[in-house]
Amino acid sequence: MNTGLDSVVNGLGPVENGLLSEVIPGNISLDSMPGLTDVNASNNPCSAPSSPVGHNSSPHPSSRKAYPSLSPNLSPTKTLPHQAASQNGLASQEQGTSIMMPDSNSTRQAFIPCKVCGDKASGYHYGVTSCEGCKGFFRRSIQKQIEYRCLRDGKCLVMRLNRNRCQYCRFKKCLAVGMSRDSVRYGRVPKGSKTAEEQYVSSAEHQQYQVALEKQQLAMYDIILTVSQAHHSNCNTTDEKIKSISKKTFTLISKLDFDNTLGSTEHILEAHRCQMFQNLAAYILPTIQRVVEFAKRIPGFADLSQDDQLILIKCGFFEIWLSWMTKLFNSTDKTLTLEDGSVVPKGELDIVYTPDIVSDMFSFAQSFGALKLNDTEIGLFSACALVDTSRPNISNMTMVEKIQERLREALKLQISRNHMSETMLFSQLMDKLRQLHTIGLRHGQLLGWFRERWYLIDTPPLFAEIYDIRKTEDD
């Protein structure tokens, strides 16, 4: 069909006329992320986001919303401590961490730096040796749910003198070194810990290991933070948003718009099914636009060709929609609550999608919900569902494979931090991706029935395009 897909080649504008091809362009590049520059990125660097409202304390911060679901149990694999000595010491700074190497003739006075900015640590805060400034910054970030944006490339150096310049990179550093809302052990640094840290930091080899590990973790947390914020901004079924949904009675069945006495019983049933599909499409349509916006913010997605972006969104939309809606499936009442609160009985979904597919949808929702993922993890899972190398006709498979690998690494890191006792959870999520993909393929085959009866369906152009349903004879 020809609904404007050709226009994706020339750079597209905002969502106005409802065409999928006009809402694809993105501004998040792998080039903007540490460790991801091996991907064949676009020649155009990512555009700098606008400055925030209400954060005038520094020249570069930007904000929209940050989310506390990022923080639980995000302790790093291993964070090496740093030290400093007094008067005759030699100062050294690397990656925002202040290290004082003492003169052999000097009398050392223990100094434990903040693992975020290198300032003098006041104790253990949120599970990490940190200063009062970074403790307060992290507390405000998770309590006020601030979403930060880096106005540069996500690689800002975080140290004592400039820690207020970029709040995004500072928050990312807090997460990377292990600050967590659930790690609330406060207090002064024990004397024994100081002695151990002083001994440990004396090795230059360990310091180099620290720097390399920190860079790797920052690259992964850049992905985690970016995808999490994209998910919270575009998904209407997060834990917070779902609280405001008020349920209401609803039916997909409506009176046909034509004289049904002129057709056979079979034709009447077909027309009713098409009408129910059309009614459901009106409720799903806004999610298409949000999924596109979500995809645009996945690191590396905008570097793909427009054709590959369209393929991934078309093939992955239903799977993302299903993963986002799992909290609203009720296996006990056998209902699905839509985002506006409309409660659809399973029996009506059976008519639209067939009982077998609907049963699989309910089964997936129940088992997926049992894993008790937080919103950040659901966002990363959805991103993995979208960027899938098994999609047909992808032109740059190498780039898609690299993005997919990075997303899965980020999901694995998040799971390992947040579910340390559940050693098999990541493998279970990979199984869930395969199960979700199977349901998506069956749904794609089902759409063939509606495509053959396109003349009975009047769906919005964007919905018709995402599912390749013709609108006219010429499509």
UniProtKB/TrEMBL annotation:
Q: Which CDD domains match?
A: NR_DBD_DmE78_like
Protein's UniProt name: Ecdysone-induced protein 78C
Q: What is the lineage of its organism?
A: Eukaryota, Metazoa, Spiralia, Lophotrochozoa, Annelida
Q: Which GO terms describe its cellular component?
A: nucleus
Output compositional bias ranges, type Low complexity: 40-52
Q: Which family does it belong to?
A: Belongs to the nuclear hormone receptor family. NR1 subfamily.
Query: What Gene3D superfamilies does the record tag this protein with?
Result: Erythroid Transcription Factor GATA-1, subunit A (3.30.50.10), Retinoid X Receptor (1.10.565.10)
Q: Tell me the ranges covered by the Nuclear receptor domain, including all copies.
A: 111-186
**Where found?**
Nucleus
